[in-house]
Structures are given as structure tokens and as C-alpha cells.
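Reviewers asked in the last cycle whether our approach scales beyond single polypeptides. To address this, we selected a multi-component target totalling 873 residues and predicted its structure end to end. The input consisted of the following lines:
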Amino acid sequence: MAVAWIDQLVLEAQKKVDEVEVFFVKGISVSAELKQKKVNLAVTSKDCGLGIRTIHNGKIGSSGTNDPDQWRECLNAAIASGKLATPQIWEGLPASLPLSQTPLSYDASLEVEPAVVIDLIENMLAGAAEHPAEVTAGSASLSSATVTLANSNGVRYTNQHTGISLSLEAIHNQSTGYEFDHSSFMDKMDPVAVGERATFFAMESDNGKDIATGEYDILLSPLAYGELLGNVFIPALSGRNVHAGRSRLGQSLGEAVIDPRITMYDDPMIKKANGSVRWDAEGTPTRRVDFIRDGILETFAYDLKTAYRFGKSSTGNAIRGGFGGLPSIGHHNFVVDGERNEIADERVVYAHNVVGAHTANPMSGEFSVELSNPFWMEGGEYETPIRSAMLSGNVFDMHKSIAGLSKESRALGSLILPSIKITKQRIIGK
Amino acid sequence: MEGVRYYDVRHVTGQVTHIDIDNSVVESAGTSFFNNAVIRVLRTTGWGVLQIDNYTPCHGKEFDSLLRSACRLAGITQGNVVLGDVPHGILPVPFMKEDPRDVDIEEKSALLSGIEQAATHPLVVNRRANYIEKIENVHFTDSSENEYSYEMCRSGFNVMAVASRNGNVQMGYEREHSIHGFNLRHQQGLGKQAADIAVALLDAGAAKGGKMRAVLDPELAGVFAHEAVGHASEGDLVQEGNSVLKGKTGQKIGNENLTIIDDPGIPEFGFDPVDAEGVAVLRTEIIKKGVINAYLHNRETLSSVGNGVAGHARAMPGEPPLVRMSNTFIEAGDATEDEIFEECRNGIFLKGSRGGQVDPGRGIFQFNAEYGYLIENGVCTKMVRDVSLSGEILTTLHGIALCGNKRAMSPGYCGKGGQSVPVSDGAPHILLNDAVVGGSGVD
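The resulting structure, written as C-alpha cells, was:
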């Protein structure tokens, strides 16, 4: 159900270029921020963005603006931009399909109102009060947005999306704790637990003991694992990086690349998951994509542009970070799965998070990160906190020495991950 | 309006032009437009803030209605925000030698392509070059009738080369960003350098982790100052109790030769002519001769924490201002480069930066070099890859034994609270004793 000016834009564009795609997002959000235990700042935001992509003789152009009234100027800028692009094989934007317009990551009962934000914050602070650590900062936000995707091939799709985000930071002496949560659905949020975990980690990590440099078995929480996976491993599954020679996995299709008990896939249809969506940012219907099944690399992720250029098919993995620029390759709900067991029974070094994962080498997979809230863990219990530990290794190689996946998974944005245990990893102590 | 103690409006309009060339293919090139505003209001308690896309400046009843909306939000806050008294004023924006807007995009694309082509080498499997040019027109007004307008243009490029041999994949990365105008001319040398480094790294070994002496080049030492000291000195973190530097003013944290500055007023990449709250920008000596001296502030943290000056509030278009660094650097000392390597004798020389991160409350930081060399008997020998450094803020700075006599600044971007702002970091070469070096190599 597009608005009239979008139809007008498409008609106007068709006089000048082969194809046009319109991406229009309009949304509202309300948030509040804590300074220690008091709400210091409250914000409402009204967001609006228009992105236009044109294709003419295989040349792709784009532009964006916050002001939809300026769509003519924006269209002209997109057409001008296309003139510079190198032409490529282009077989057309997707045609319109009778896809359900019922949104998958939308909570119709969510009220984007300050009172709801305050309620979430009060519950988070109630949870935080369970341990005597000091709250330093925190936030709660609610958002609701409508996305319209239209193209000159008849597509007129709309999707609604809601989001609830919480975070809390705490400190006890010189020990910090941080926890957060995000979901599209209010009934999946547990503000009390977010608060409780933040002060728990700040409390429990105080008085850490030194650890000697050496090799250890490590248990990475979903948060710590997600940092390494998201910065290094997932980009190597992008078709664009593969064909550009920027992926270490590029030559390994059909080969065993990780432990045979592990499977990695993107599933855009998971009920109530944050990234669930019926079509991707270009209007290609989404589907489950199995990147790695039982340790074997089966496929990479593609959008239309990369697929057309390299004789592949789009896997429905086009995403947009915002309204400007071109769609890029990403995922909707990226899942790591496999045989689950008790992985915290034997003595391991547990890390709740890592500091500096973005400094890893995305080509080779080499990384060195500081562990956040590291503990000696045994029988599933946080036993002794460790003062400071640097973990060095290789994200690709570490997936070959996986000792197990935890029984529970956690949703972190668009990642759904278990904790993982990896053996014989190098720690540099103090 | 009645009951309004303070308000300000920061409206930013502008355009972003980009070019992305990947292995000779112009993937995308063009211009997008933005229009974002933030209205902040104080009544009796904390901030009520409106973020508005596609804002049209307004007056009278229309503006009052916006203020009322912001007041309703302020009504749910509890804290008592007090604003410090501050000097106002605006610096002139540095002159651009060549305005990027005077160069058409076809020429920009051809020049960028030249830089990308210069990274050609038989072992290089991918070359990528990006150009980015952002023009911001900023208009600021507040309830005390302060009003400022200025235009800033930042432009520059990144070039990356990926070398591959027998499954070993390495990268070289160079960048140059500036507030002084168009900088794509005569830069092929950086494309070649990216390729040379990527290829050389194919033969580099993994660094062996552990405690050792390290020499940091000016770029990496600048990141060290940014991560190890800069963030923890931000007044909002001090106010929240989330900085190990809280309550430590006057405490000796490093040697006499160590002075660390943040100065938004110098003409480097993090330059602001006036801060995001309309406050005049001033230099802050965070560490003075090894002693913790002052924090970075906005008006709120200045009044709440004290000790330092405001003028360090910065914001992305359409976002509320936060206390941020701008141009952060270690002052030059008196050691020559030769003296630094001679004094190091045996250790590691770390060059370039892949970024860093800090937990300011815990006082732990981490950052990563692009590559390095072993230092044996005062001389650089074998090249090493993937080296990072971590440390504790309160103890590591004592390890800075020597500061070189020449300082250089490097441009970059810094993230905080979901906002990314342009910064520069810099330092002379420094010698760091007892550096905790991370790397996966073993004997």
C-alpha cells in the first residue's frame, strides 16, 4: 500500500531509466537515558528517509534524502550517479509476488510512549538492586517504523517493524558489568534480568586473580562469541567478499571448514525473531539459507547485483543499513546450531564479552582481544574472577577445535547463538 | 516560554558524495542529502529532546509547540541538570586550498581509480578505494540568544590491497582525510604502499605474545593516547562514576615527560569551530607532566564534576551532543628516533592502527597495530603481523620511558553512544616498557 507520490516517482523515473527502486522509511522512537539511577534525558525522534536506486543499461545509480518532498531532485541525483558506475550484467528487479503483508517482527500492542519507557527503566533498576554494585548508566528505547519498497516491476510492499532496546552499566570498585537486550516484542523482554545481570557481573568480577600466560580451554558466552563471529566469520560468507578475493572461505565451497557437528544458517522466518522478514531489501522473497551444514561449506550470501555479475541467484540476503546508498549483503536471523551439551561442567575460562573484536584481521581471522568479566568456571558456577586476560587466536581455526555448544541460545540483534567451548586457546596473562 | 530554563536548536543540513571502486569496477558513486535537527529543553529537572528529520526552522507558535513537546519529555526526567557558565565564540573554519565541490565527480572518480590501480601487484587479489566527502551546514541557536552558523567540508579516501598466497590472506590499508580541501591528487604512492604492505605481510610471522618493550609509531601512539587516556577523561563518564580517573586529579600517572592534550581548536581532522552546545572550543591538558590535570567537559559535566573546561560537546547531525575527544595527542619530547630504538634494544616496533577499545570504568584498554617489526640490538629485523596491545590505564602510562621529538597526527573516526565523529590522534614515537603484547605466535 504505497503512497501516491511513490507511484508518481516510479512513473517519472520510467521515462528516463530502465528500472527504478524506491525505499521509504518513516518511524518514531521514544527513549530515556539514565545517569546513575536517575533519568537524565528523554528523547522522541521522528525519522524519515527516502532511498532511490536506478538501473539503466546495467549502470546502477543511487541517492537518498530525509525530505520526500524533494524526490525529484533525489531522483535526478540517482540518475546522475548511475552515469558514473561501471555497467554490469543486470537481469531485472524482482517482480511483484502475492506475499503476505503481515509483518513478522512487529508487536502491534507496543505503545511507543514515554510512560512505557519509564516502566522498563524502573524494572531494570529493580533488577539491578539485587546486587550492591552502583548503576552508572543505562537506557531504554521503543521504536516503530514502516518501510515501503516499490519498484518499476510492480512491487509495492510495506512492512512494519517494532523494537525495544535496554541496556545497563554498573560498577563495583574497579569492576564493571554491562548487559543489554533487544527484541521486536515486549513479551520477550526481561528488564529485571538485564539489570540483575549487569550488577551481578560488576559484583562478581571484583578482586580478580592473575592468570599465567598459557593455553586454556575457553567458554565464550553468546555475546563474546557474537563479537568474533560478526567481525570476522560472517563477512567471509558474503558473496561480494568471496568474488572480490576478500574471504578466507572463498575457495572452500563443498569442503569441511569447521567442526562437523556445527551448522550455520540464516532463517528469516523464525517466529518472533528480531530479523524475521518475508522479502529482502530488494524485494526478493526470503528463504532459509544453509551456509554451513555439518561443517561443510554449502553456499555464500548473494544480493541481485552480485548474483547477476557472477552468474548466481540472489539468496534473498540484501539488507539496508539505512535509506541512503545501495543495498548490501547481510543476513536476517543468523543461527549457529549443532549438537548441544553441558559445556560448563569441567574447569574452563569463561568470558562474558570481549574488548576490541573490531580490530581483528577480517582476512586472515587473527585476533587478540581483552576478555571482559573473565572467570574460572566449573560445574556451571562462576568460581574465581580473573583480573585481566588477553585471548589471541584465529576465528576460522578456532571453529575447528570446538568442544561443544551450550543447551541454551541467545538472540543478539540478528544473531542467534549458543555459548561455545573451544579448546587450547592462547591467553596472555599479566 | 514559561517554565523553560534553557533551550537550544542544532540544525544540520548537507550532502555526502561517495565513490566506491572495487577491482577496477565503479561500484557506486553519487550524492545523498540530509537534514537533521535536535531541539533540547531544560525545565526543572533533566533534558527533553526532540530529534527531527527534515526540519524546517520555525518561530512563534509553531516553535512554541515544539518546545512544549520537549517540555513534556523533560517532565519524565528526574536528575537536576545544571549548566556551567561558559565562554562563547566561534573560530574561523580553515581555508580550503581546493574546494572539492569545484572538482566534478568524473575527475574525482578518475583520480581515485589511479590510486586504486597503483595497488596492482601480481600477488594482490583485490584492490578497493573509497572516496567520501561530507559537507555540513550547521546552524545553532539557544535561549540566551547565542547564534552560530558555519560550514565544514571533510573529504578523503581509503585504499586497501588484499594479497593472497597459498591460502594466506593479508591486507594493507592506507587513508588520508582532511579539512583542508580536496586531497585526491598525487596520491598513487599510498595505493602502492597498501599493496607493498599486504605483500610483505604474506612473509611476516605471528607475533609472540607477552610482556616486552615496545616502540609505537606516531599513529599508534596517538591511538594509545585516545584509548588509554582520552575516553576515561570524558566528563560524562567521570560524572557517572564510570572512569578510573574519577577523583584522581593531581595523582601522578606517568613520567615527567608525558603530557596529553585534547584541542578541538587546532586545524586537524577533529576540528570544531564551536562546540555542539555553542561553547567556545579550548585546549585541555588532560595529563600534564605525568600528573592527571583536567577532564573534558560539556556544560552539564563542567558544573557537576568541575576541573576542566567545556567546549568538548560534539554530535552527529540529528543526535544529542556527548562529551567527546577531537584532536588528541601526546606532546613531543626530546628523544631522537635513534635514541628510542637504542634504548629499547630488544622488543617490538608497532606501526599503524586497526583501532582500539576501552572499558574506562575497569581501566582496561586494547588496540591493534597494522603490523610491526622485531627490534633486536636496537635494529628492526623480522616483520610481524596481527599484533595488539592491552593494558591498565592506571599503571601502563608509567611505562612510557621516552617520547620522540617529532609529533604527527592521523585522521580517523571515533564511536561512542552510537555516534561516530571525526577525530585525529597523534604523538611522537614513544618507547613503552612492560607492554602487554598480544599475538598468537609461540616459540
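The two ends of chain B are 71 Å apart (CA to CA). We regard this as preliminary and will revisit it once experimental data from Aim 1 are available.
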